[in-house]
Design a protein that fits this description.
This protein is of the alpha+beta class. 22% of the residues lie in helices and 34% in strands. The strands form 9 sheets. Strands 7, 8, 11, 12, 17, 18 and 21 form a 7-stranded antiparallel β-sheet that branches. Strands 1-4 form a two-stranded antiparallel sheet. A flexible structure which links the flagellar filament to the drive apparatus in the basal body.
């Protein structure tokens, strides 16, 4: 069988994955705190026809002859670029201007990280996200404490450094904390706008917003998705044409095989 046919198949698979990533980006164009994906490719191993030779016997050297066997996915990256901040004027809508993630704890004690800052108060006055996971804060005695604003509080506000001021009530849990990772690209998406740490993301460093390189909190705003529709539609056209070109390779290879079969009638 022709090598070109299998090269075309590998190209079609790669561009199909690229279209899948583009489709997910477009589907989340209005998802708060969403970070878009990007697909990169690399070539497969090449078949050696002849190797290189050095100059000898009065003749110059020759270059190697190789035939490539197609392409494959190199990476599927998550691009952690800053999304624009949309003003909502709601005190529990928090955006991060800069690097870092909000820290959450679920009902099993697992730690999760998010850039989506739409938080709420539950019936007990604890600050939670839309799934009921507790936003983590810190006091002088330690970190990883849920933040509680007593139900008799008249009003409250959250500062750029994560500090919470309450009027007519009490606060427990201290400041909102921001987690920074040595390699945020190594985080793993787990759905619901959440990330978890991996072996390649490194150990998170918890700090007050605006300290240690962490971003500041902008209360009354939400970070929008960093998906650019014009860029995604352009990439969609490129992927579509790449897929189409690879199908043409398979069609042409099939026609050549048909001619070979028809040599003997």
């Amino acid at each position: 069988m022709l090598r070109s046919m299998y090269s075309g198949i590998s190209g079609m698979k790669g561009f199909q994955n690229k279209l899948d990533v583009i489709g997910n980006n477009i589907a989340n164009v209005n998802t708060f705190g969403f970070k878009k994906g990007r697909v990169t490719f690399k070539d497969m191993v090449s078949q050696q026809i002849s190797g290189a030779s050095a100059a000898a016997g009065g003749l110059g050297g020759t270059n190697p002859k190789q035939v490539g066997l197609g392409s494959q996915i190199s990476t599927i990256d998550t691009l952690h670029t800053q999304g624009s901040l949309q003003t909502t004027a709601r005190p529990l809508d928090l955006g991060i201007s800069g690097d870092g993630f909000f820290v959450l704890k679920n009902n099993t004690g697992d730690t999760l990280y998010t850039r989506s800052g739409n938080f709420y108060l539950d019936v007990n006055g604890d600050i939670v996200n839309s799934d009921g996971y507790y936003l983590q804060g810190a006091t002088g005695s330690g970190a990883n404490k849920k933040i509680n604003i007593s139900t008799d509080t008249q009003s409250f506000s959250i500062g750029a450094d994560g500090s919470i001021s309450v009027v007519g009530g009490t606060l427990t849990g201290g400041k909102v904390q921001i987690a920074k990772f040595p390699n945020p690209d190594g985080l793993e998406k787990v759905g619901s706008n959440m990330f978890i740490s991996t072996n390649n993301s490194g150990t998170p460093v918890l700090s007050d917003p605006g300290a240690g390189g962490a971003g500041k909190i902008v209360a009354g705003t939400l970070e929008m998705s960093n998906v650019d529709l014009s860029e995604e539609f352009t990439e969609m056209i490129v992927a579509q044409r790449g897929f189409q070109a690879n199908t043409r390779i398979i069609t042409t290879s099939d026609e050549i095989l048909q001619e070979l079969v028809n040599l003997k009638r």
